[in-house]
Amino acid sequence: MANWPSKHKIVGDVRGKGLMIGVEIIRDQKSKERAHDFRESIVDRAFEKASYCWAREKIRSVSRRH
């Protein structure tokens, strides 16, 4: 899976171990612009094929000191 970005134009990065992996879906390899529409199509197709797939954006946590 580590070589997916070089094999597939819409894959920006692959992270994780075992069955828990994350695949970044992008529009362009240079700009790394996220491709939300492609991602949603992939998730819908996986659901139709009875595969579990979860689409999520990066969430940044902000820690505040009082």
Please describe what this structure looks like.
By secondary structure, this protein is of the alpha+beta class. The protein is built from 2 helices and 2 strands, in the order αββα. The protein has helices at 4-7, 36-48, and strands spanning 11-17, 20-25. A two-stranded antiparallel sheet has the order 1-2. β1 (11-17) and β2 form a beta hairpin.
* CA gyration radius, whole angstroms: 14 Å
Helix content: 25-40%
- The DSSP helix count reads 2
What is the overall pLDDT average? Answer: 79
Strand content: 15-25%
What's the β-strand tally? 2
| Largest sheet descriptor | 2 strands, antiparallel
Order of helices and strands: HEEH
Name the poorly predicted regions. 59-66
Major sheet strand order: 1-2
| Envelope shape | globular
Q: Distance between the terminal alpha carbons, to the nearest Å?
A: 43 Å
- The secondary-structure class comes to alpha+beta
What are the defining features of this structure?
two-stranded antiparallel ribbon, 2 helices, 66 residues, alpha+beta
Short synopsis of the structure:
The protein is of the alpha+beta class and 66 residues long. 26% of the residues lie in helices and 20% in strands. It is built from two helices and two strands.
